[in-house]
């Protein structure tokens, strides 16, 4: 290459400045957003104390008198170090703009001096980088001009700098001058670019063959069968045609509208017809251009305002208005049709390539074309939706099928990544066996080739010729080759170049194609990013969420909804090293979308479950009474239904269909579930900001929460009316839900068993994982507040013969039938529902109530301590016992409380019996497992926990002994209660006093176990005293008082029968068996008479 073109290093400078310019642009945009957001705005700009200084600086900028008006700047003087720290980063960023500006103008002047030749079809990369640099620089200046607080920040920094160091910052005069000059940026920019008009216009006019091809309406795409592999089956294996114009127009030039504004070289619009036509075409493509991120430029308004200030541009202003009207009328519909075409084309392309991934080699260009077109349509819609003008057809700017387009973009990208090795292998062979040969032939046919250019071209051929599929990825790196090609373009594009590239179109064509093929080998990710990156959606959260909600309302779009959270995985790509703080790591959008999808899916799943539960409920035994009644009267003539009376349908009638095309509600829900579950097939997991996101876990989490709520709701507990569902009904409902939930596994790969186990296990605890009440808590509350409370008042009777509780016959209607909640089948259902953990919680609550009663009993013993001690010592002296008995108070209260304890223990025993199917082991857990123990460990623990520091073991022991004495001597009073009669039908007494047997045995055993005393000895003592007291009933001749004497006698027999420590021999030694036999005969005879 010539010394001039090589020494200027145009290619290197263009590459570096474009990268640097993007960083500066993003930094300026971040500063603008920060200063405009009240939450992020620098504190020094919001501080009320700083207001006078800011107003003064803005008014005098840039010529601020730091010494003459010190009263206005006192606040800065006081906090100069803080101000310096707070504004230094902003000041440095503005200095970066000056530095960038200097380098850009130096390079542009050099390019003009070299009289470089630009043509997108020849020196594609050189021209593209040149135009990119100009648009990037312009965007930097426009964004800078939009920062309202720039003067305040720069002025405050310099003021603090001067107060600290005694002099202004050296860069301040230039920076202040630049900020003032760019108060009206377009006017200044057009002045600066005047000398560069020729180069810029030449470069832009080279787009006249490219730009129209990129902006064809959907009808022409459709007629040309764009992106279709099936339109010409015979050529399916042929490499896709990829000349320079195709490559540039289809893939790389997505932002070409930004180039063709002609704002910086407007003079060519009046002198070149071609410029006018290209300019109008660009103005008709849309209303807004992207500066960066979500910062846009209203191109028509800006152009009109600028041209209004120039003389002789009235026709151009009219053209602008005409183009704007054209956009408003036609553009929305045109882009809508394009998106509609792309949806179908992308789907077909994906299906073919998924079936035959080998085609990804020759047809890779088709994939990148499809991705590029789709990306452009998405971004166009996002840009215009956010800034939508007033239109007669706003629906053109709303797309409720965006999910499908994004879905197939994700699918095609996934396909390219999955089969990257196929694409790579194909293109390695293509480069070595075809491109290298074509390039060599092209070089041989060149009539002039200077030595150093020849060295570069020869190195291209040798590099490509030695390629092999056996080489590793680290060896397949063509970045150096592509950079050399860019250098060669620069060398051959300067004026009077020894090898002018415009004379060798074949070389340009071959090298541009080779460049594309090398990218297919070593830069697949970069190509995918360049052609399909939609991370800008991160800066349009409102539009993005609106698109999601619109798509989620469409039934046919539900299967594509997962594309929205998957797009969030691209957000990590939108960061830039020059502004790392711009993109904060947050998953809000992604989580919002996944939560919404999971919510919709769980709603449908649980609606289907509810429907199945209703159908299952119809088959429960409780509903068969009508059918049985009808069967008994089958032979009778069927009565005619009354007018208006609807015959009840039998279960299963819903399955009979006359017309299969008529969709039931369940059909619609299954269809919706199929659609929603299909969306989970897009990916099992993906990464967003270093977080691994698993979509199905969101669904399981939603199902867990909702299922827990449903189970609690199915329990139907009403604290006011004390209503609750029967455990067997709730269990049947849960089983129906579980069975239906398992069908979800046929739609989607989720662990339903884990879900159900998690939910049901939580229901065995007092509170679930969210702190909500569980069925364990509800049933415990109901048993304590309703069932056992009524049993304590003898409204409900414990029935040993039927192993349940039954209602007493009363005048009022009971709120519930006790046997329907406490029989064996119901308690087994309860045990299955709340499990050993739930029954342990129930048992702990029961024990609390028992210990409360024992505490009250101890108080009564203490009140009657002296009398009870004497009675214990004189138990063999009837006369003294009779007199002492009259001094004893509260006997009925003692028996009442002991009966309550007995009732609670009887219910607990029944509940524990129901747990035998759910077995645990180890003695301490035996009662939780439903295994019987001679001494109840739970009761022992509860009694032991009652011990206080104030009472000694001896005192507790004394109270326990006296409590048994108290109970024994109080037993005869039970005969006075008319409800103390024994009922053979129930196997117990009407006032539940038969539960005293359980209470006396278990409470005594527990108390003496805690005190480490002999249980049998003390129960013998109790039996002796109780027998003596009851025998005295027989000496009383007043029959009225002893009406239920025989029923009370049976208590002694029950106490001995239930006790593992007492025997019948012990009983007979102190109470004649003949009395027991006569008592049984008496109560059974009265039962027979009652029945008669």
Describe this structure in words.
The protein has 1092 residues and is mainly alpha-helical. Among the domains are: 1-207; 421-532, no CATH class; 828-1086, no CATH class. 63% of the residues lie in helices and 2% in strands. It is built from 48 helices and 8 strands. It has a two-stranded antiparallel sheet with strand order 1-2. A hairpin with a 2-residue loop joins strand 3 and strand 4 (691-693). The chain is elongated, with a radius of gyration of 46 Å. Residues 630-656 are annotated as: Disordered. This is NCK associated protein 1 like. Residues 631-641 have a biased composition (Basic residues). Residues 642-656 have a biased composition (Basic and acidic residues).
Radius of gyration over all CA atoms, rounded = 46 Å
Q: Name the strands of the widest sheet in spatial order.
A: 1-2
Secondary-structure-based class equals mainly alpha
First and last CA, distance:
129 Å
Given the C-alpha coordinates, what overall shape results?
elongated
Number of strands: 8
Strand content: under 5%
Question: Secondary-structure map with pairings?
Answer:
Layout lengths: L2 H6 L1 H27 L6 H4 L4 H10 L13 H5 L1 H34 L10 H22 L4 H16 L6 H10 L3 H8 L4 H9 L5 H4 L3 H6 L20 H9 L3 H4 L7 H5 L1 H11 L4 E5 L2 E4 H10 L5 H42 L8 H23 L15 H17 L1 H25 L6 H15 L13 H13 L13 H18 L1 H9 L8 H12 L10 H5 L20 H31 L6 H8 L32 H15 L6 E3 L2 E3 L1 H21 L11 H16 L9 H12 L11 H18 L3 E4 L4 E4 L11 H4 L1 H40 L1 H9 L4 H10 L3 H23 L9 H4 L10 H8 L8 H18 L11 E2 L4 E2 L5 H16 L4 H17 L13 H14 L5 H7 L2 H19 L1
Antiparallel strand pairs: 1-2, 3-4, 5-6, 7-8
Helix pairs in contact: 2-6, 2-7, 4-8, 6-7, 6-8, 8-9, 14-20, 18-19, 19-20, 19-21, 20-21, 20-26, 21-26, 22-23, 22-25, 23-24, 24-25, 29-31, 29-32, 29-33, 32-34, 33-37, 35-37, 37-40, 37-42, 37-43, 38-39, 38-43, 40-43, 40-44, 42-44, 43-45, 44-46, 45-46, 46-48
């Amino acid at each position: 290459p010539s010394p001039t073109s090589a020494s200027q290093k145009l290619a290197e400078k263009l590459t570096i400045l474009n990268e640097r310019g993007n960083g500066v642009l993003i930094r300026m945009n971040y500063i603008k957003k920060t200063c405009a957001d009240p939450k992020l705005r620098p504190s020094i700009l919001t501080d009320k104390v700083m207001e006078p200084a800011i107003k003064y600086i803005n008014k005098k900028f840039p010529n601020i008198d730091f010494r003459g008006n010190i009263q206005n700047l006192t606040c800065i003087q006081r906090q100069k170090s803080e101000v310096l720290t707070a504004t230094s980063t902003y000041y440095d960023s503005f200095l970066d703009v000056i530095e960038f500006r200097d380098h850009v103008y130096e390079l542009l002047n050099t390019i003009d001096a070299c009289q470089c030749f630009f043509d997108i079809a020849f020196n594609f990369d050189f021209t593209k980088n040149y135009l990119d640099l100009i648009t990037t620089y312009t965007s930097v200046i426009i964004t800078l001009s939009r920062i309202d607080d720039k003067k305040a920040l720069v002025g405050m920094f310099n003021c603090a700098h001067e107060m600290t160091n005694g002099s202004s910052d050296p860069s301040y005069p230039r920076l202040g001058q630049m900020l003032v000059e760019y108060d009206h940026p377009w006017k200044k920019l057009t002045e600066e670019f005047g000398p560069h008009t020729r180069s810029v216009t030449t470069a832009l006019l080279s787009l006249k063959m490219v730009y129209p091809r990129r902006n064809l309406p959907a009808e022409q795409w459709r007629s040309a069968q764009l992106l279709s592999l099936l339109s010409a089956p015979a050529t399916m294996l042929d490499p896709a045609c990829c000349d320079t114009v195709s490559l540039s127009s289809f893939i790389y030039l997505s932002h070409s509208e930004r180039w063709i504004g002609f704002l910086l070289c407007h003079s060519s619009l009046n002198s070149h017809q071609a410029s006018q036509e290209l300019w109008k075409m660009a103005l008709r493509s849309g209303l807004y251009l992207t500066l960066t991120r979500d910062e846009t430029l209203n191109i028509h308004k800006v152009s009109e305002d600028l041209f209004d200030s120039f003389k002789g541009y009235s026709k151009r202003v009219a053209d602008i208005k005409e183009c704007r009207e054209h956009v408003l009328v036609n553009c929305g519909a045109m882009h809508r049709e394009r998106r509609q075409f792309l949806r179908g084309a992308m789907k077909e392309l994906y299906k073919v390539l998924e079936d035959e991934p080998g085609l990804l080699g020759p047809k890779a260009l088709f994939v990148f074309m499809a991705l590029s077109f789709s990306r452009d349509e998405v971004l166009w819609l996002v840009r215009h939706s956010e800034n939508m003008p007033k239109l007669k057809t706003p629906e053109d700017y709303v797309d409720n099928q965006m999910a499908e387009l994004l879905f197939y973009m994700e699918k095609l990208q996934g396909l390219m990544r999955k089969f990257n090795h196929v694409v790579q292998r194909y293109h390695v062979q293509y480069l070595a066996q075809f491109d290298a040969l074509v390039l060599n032939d092209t070089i041989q046919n060149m009539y002039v080739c200077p030595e150093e250019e020849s060295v570069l071209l020869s190195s291209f051929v040798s590099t490509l010729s030695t390629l092999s599929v056996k080489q590793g990825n680290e060896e397949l790196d063509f970045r150096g080759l592509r950079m050399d090609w860019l250098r060669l373009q620069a060398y051959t594009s300067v004026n009077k170049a020894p090898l002018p590239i415009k004379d060798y179109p074949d070389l340009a064509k071959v090298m541009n194609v080779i460049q594309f093929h090398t990218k297919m080998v070593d830069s697949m990710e970069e190509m995918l990013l360049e052609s399909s990156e939609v991370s800008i959606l991160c800066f349009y959260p409102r539009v993005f969420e609106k698109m999601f909600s619109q798509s989620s309302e469409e039934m046919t779009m539900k299967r594509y909804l997962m594309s929205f959270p998957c797009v969030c995985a691209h957000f990590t790509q939108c960061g830039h090293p020059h502004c790392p703080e711009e993109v904060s790591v947050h998953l809000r959008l992604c989580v919002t979308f996944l939560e919404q999808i999971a919510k919709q899916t769980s709603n449908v799943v649980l609606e289907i479950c509810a429907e199945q539960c209703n159908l299952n409920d119809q088959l429960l035994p409780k509903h068969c009474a009508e059918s049985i009644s009808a069967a008994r009267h089958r032979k009778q003539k069927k009565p005619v239904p009354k007018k208006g009376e609807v015959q009840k349908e039998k279960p299963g009638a819903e399955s009979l269909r006359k017309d299969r095309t008529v969709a039931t509600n369940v059909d619609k829900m299954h269809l919706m579930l199929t659609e929603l579950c299909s969306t989970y097939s897009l990916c099992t997991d993906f990464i967003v900001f270093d977080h691994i996101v698993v979509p199905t876990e969101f669904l399981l989490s939603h199902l867990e929460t909702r299922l827990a709520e449903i189970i609690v709701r199915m329990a139907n507990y009403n604290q006011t009316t004390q209503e609750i569902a029967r455990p067997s009904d709730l269990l049947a409902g849960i089983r129906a839900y579980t069975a239906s939930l398992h069908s979800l596994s046929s739609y989607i790969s989720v662990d339903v068993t884990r879900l159900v186990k998690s939910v049901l296990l939580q229901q065995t605890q007092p509170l679930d994982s969210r702190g909500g009440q569980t069925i364990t808590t509800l049933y415990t509350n109901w048993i304590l507040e309703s069932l056992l409370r009524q049993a304590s008042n003898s409204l409900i009777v414990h029935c040993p013969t039927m192993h349940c509780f039954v209602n007493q016959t009363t005048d009022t209607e009971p709120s519930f039938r006790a046997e329907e909640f406490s029989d064996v089948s119901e308690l087994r259902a309860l045990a299955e529902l709340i499990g050993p953990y739930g029954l342990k919680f129930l048992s702990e609550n029961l024990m609390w109530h028992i210990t409360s009663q024992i505490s009250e009993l101890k108080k009564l013993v203490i009140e009657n301590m002296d009398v009870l001690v004497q009675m214990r010592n004189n138990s063999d002296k009837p006369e003294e016992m009779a007199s002492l008995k009259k001094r004893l108070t509260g006997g009925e209260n003692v028996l009442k409380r002991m009966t309550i304890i007995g009732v609670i223990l009887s219910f607990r025993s029944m509940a524990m019996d129901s747990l035998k199917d759910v077995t645990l082991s180890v003695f301490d857990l035996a009662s939780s497992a439903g295994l019987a123990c001679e001494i109840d460990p739970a009761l022992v623990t509860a009694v032991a926990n009652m011990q206080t520091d104030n009472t000694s073991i001896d005192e507790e022991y004394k109270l326990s002994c006296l409590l048994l004495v108290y109970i024994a001597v109080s037993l005869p009073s039970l005969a006075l209660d008319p409800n103390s009669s024994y009922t053979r039908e129930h196997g117990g007494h009407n006032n539940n006093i038969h539960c005293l047997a359980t209470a006396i045995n278990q409470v005594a055993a527990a108390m003496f176990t805690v005190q480490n005393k002999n249980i049998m000895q003390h129960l013998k003592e109790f039996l002796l005293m109780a027998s003596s007291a009851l025998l005295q009933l027989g000496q009383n001749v007043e029959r009225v008082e002893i009406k239920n004497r025989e029923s009370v006698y049976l208590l002694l027999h029950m106490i001995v029968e239930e006790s593992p420590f007492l025997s019948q021999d012990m009983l007979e030694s102190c109470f004649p068996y003949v009395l027991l036999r006569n008592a049984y005969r008496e109560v059974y005879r009265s039962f027979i008479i009652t029945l008669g």
